[in-house]
Each structure stands twice: as C-alpha cells, then as structure tokens.
Amino acid sequence: MEIKEWASCPTQSKLYQELAQLDLLVNIAELDVFGFTVIPPEKVAPPEFHARVKDAAVKVVERRFGPLGGDGMTWKDKNQIIRMILWEDPIFEELLLNPAGLGLIQHLIGTNCILALFDGWVKGPGEGRTPMHRDNYDFTRQASAPEPSSANFNYLVTDYSAEEGALTFVPGSHKWRRPPTPGEMADWADKSEVIEAPAGSMVVWGDLTWHGSAPRSNVGERLMVLGHYCRPYMQTQEPYRQTVTKEALARNPLRFAGLMDVYGAFPFGAQDADMTRLMEGAAVSSGMIDASPYHSLFDRDPADDKVSPRPGYDYFAFDVEAHRQKQEKIAAMMAKRSEPDAASAERKGSGGAR
Ligand SMILES: O=C(O)CCC(=O)C(=O)O
213: CA distance to ligand 1 center in Å? Predict the structure, then answer.
C-alpha cells in the first residue's frame, strides 16, 4: 500500500517511512507481537561510533568506581546501574538521538516523547542478576493501558549471551498488562529468552514487557548503556530539563530540546502557563496538544539560538496586566484555530467530506 502523509496520523506516517528507510519494519512487527526487538550493529551505527561509546562507558565506570582490574573479577557478584551519565561524554548525546533506537522508541510511545533516564550498567561474573520486572512505573493502577507509557533501548557495549549474563525477556508478556507476581518472577527467572547479540546491537522494548537478566558465568564485565524515554505528560526519573545547558541545546538538533522537555508547560505557578514560551516551543514539541511537529530522525542541524533552557520562574508572582494580555492572545489563537483549514474547505467544496 502507498504510505501517504495522512492528516489523521501525520507524524506516524512520516516516522514509518523513515523506519522503512532504515530497514526496521520487521522490528516494528517484533515489538508489536513479542514486545521486544534487537537491532543489529550495522543498522545502529558504524564501528567507530561503537569504539567511542565503549571508551566513554568504561571511563564513566572507572571515574565513579575505580579501575577495572585485569583479572575480570573486579565486579564479581555485582550488578550496578550507573545513574545520569548523559553529560559525561558528547557521544552519549548522539546515542540518545540514534535514528534506529529513537525511531523504534517513537513508534512505541510517540514522536513527542521525552528522555526519562540515561544510564550505564556494569555487571561482573557470579550471582549478580536483574530480577524479572517491567519498566512501567505507574504503580497506582491494577491493570495497565494496552500501550506502553515509556520505552527503553539497551545499547550493548559488550557481547550478550547466556554466559555473558545477558538481558532476558518473556516474549508476549507485554499483552498481559500487569507486573509479574513474586511467584512469576521466580518462575520465569530461568525460563525467559536470553538475548544473544554482538556488541553494538540495540535492544528496544516498551515498558509492559517482562524482562530480567541471566547470571554471568564468564569472567570480565558486561557493559551496557540505556536510554529510557516517556510520554511528555510524565515525570522524568532523572532531571534532564533542569541540567541541560544552553550549549548542549545549541549544538544538537531541535528534537533534542524536545527530548529535554525544555518547552514542557508544567509546572506553572500563579501566572499560569507561560504562553509566550509555549508558542516559541511549538516548533520543537508540545505535550499539551497533539500538535508537535515531526522532526526527521536524520536531522542533525544544530538548533543554535532557536532554543533555550527553561527560564527560572517565580511561581508566586502574578501580574494582572500580563494575565489580561495573555487572555487576549489565547482568544485570538482559538479564533484562528476554529477557522476551517484549506484542506478541509477543499474537501467540503468537492463534496468529499468524510
Ligand atoms: O540488563 C539488565 O540486567 C536489565 C536491564 C533492564 O532492566 C533495563 O534496562 O530496564
């Protein structure tokens, strides 16, 4: 079938076409049917990119915890997440925008998703392993919505197999829409599907899929870098909006500012939402209305001064004149939005309204 830029799903059709260009349509099917997928290294990035991520990941581990010993036993029985590493090397900014990874994540949770976590992970030989769980962090409801609210990539810095202590999945569990019970966690620990994939691969899944990891029998370290993204109305787990600099926003494409959520409307104070800023940010992304523009996965033009960090608001301040002006602007905007657009006027004119 011909994929057109249908007005009913404008961002999805553009994303779909770019995923087709990246030869990732089968990965969409795997995500939908099994709840996880593996992107091979040749569809992720060239070997030089991998070398840079590996070097940066090892440096993060060593800076925070000391050198990796030559005997491969430094991390014996340990399984450690290394929090908030994004700002430690610019290669991580590229990894977070990787077209294959970000493209599949956007397929799962929308093209206006934001970054929730960006972490490293190190695990040594022995007992360390991750219990069976899912990443959905809405603990307020018994049953989850059928679609994920957040999604993950794991970039494999080292090879994955059972002996290497790889990530494991319960295929199809994303359809069950609930977390595993303690009994199921024990049951699935050794029955789940082990990821076998070379370093440089990316594993992608939505937050409904049950996963864990196998214990590592080989010596040495298993290293991984993860990006976890969420829908824009959610609270992120790490504070990227608060920590992103003007320079990082300027050197990256527009989509990066959306991922940092610097134009997100909430929270606001006595003065209500900052309309001027929301309008400035409309070219970047919007979580308020489903009107975020589509940013190509391949766009690498620096945003330069088109974007800026979120201002520091005084949440107690209230200026009645500014309030009145804002109300007028909103009224004008709403009047403009309620005018029929050219396409629907044309459909009506030709009697083709559907
Ligand atoms: O690799 C692991 O041990 C588990 C990874 C994981 O749970 C995650 O990235 O959400």
Answer: 7
- The H helix count followed by the E strand count for the chain is 13, 9
For residues 128 and 77, the answer to whether their CB atoms sit within 8 Å is: yes
- Which DSSP string corresponds to 202-230? EEEEETTS-EEEPPB-SSS-EEEEEEEEE
Instruction: Return the ∠ at Cα 171 (arms to 168 and 172), rounded to 5°.
Output: 145
Place of tokens 């800023």: 277
The CA 243 to ligand 1 mean position distance, Å, reads: 24
- C-beta of residue 81 within 8 angstroms of C-beta of residue 65: no
Taken in order 102, 107, 112, 117, is the CA torsion positive or negative? negative
Q: Is the CB of 152 under 6 A from ligand 1?
A: yes
Contacts of 269 (CB under 8 A, 6+ apart): 313, 314, 315, 316, 317
* Strands of 114-123's sheet in order across: 36-39, 202-206, 150-156, 222-230, 114-123, 79-82
Supply angle C-alpha 132, 138, 143, rounded to 5. 80
What distance in angstroms lies between residue 144's CA and the mean position of ligand 1's atoms? 20
Nearest CA to ligand 1 atom 10: 135
H or E stretch covering 240? helix 240-243
Q: Mean pLDDT of all residues in the chain? A: 93
**45 and 155 Cβ atoms separated by less than 8 Å:** no
pTM for the structure as a whole: 0.93
Report the alpha-carbon distance of residue 226 to residue 116 in Å, rounded: 11
Nearest CA to 229 out of 137, 132, 130 is that of 137
* 97 and 252 Cβ atoms separated by less than 8 Å: yes
Checking if the pLDDT of 332 tops 90, the result is: no
Please tell me the residue having the least CA distance from ligand 1 atom 7: 212
> What domains can you pick out in the chain, each with its CATH number?
10-230 (2.60.120.620), 240-345 (no CATH)
Statement: residue 110 has pLDDT above 60? yes
Q: In which band, very low, low, confident or very high, does the pLDDT at 352 lie, cut at 50, 70 and 90?
A: very low
203 lines ligand 1 (CB under 6 A): no
Q: Report phi then psi at 130, rounded to 5.
A: -95, 125
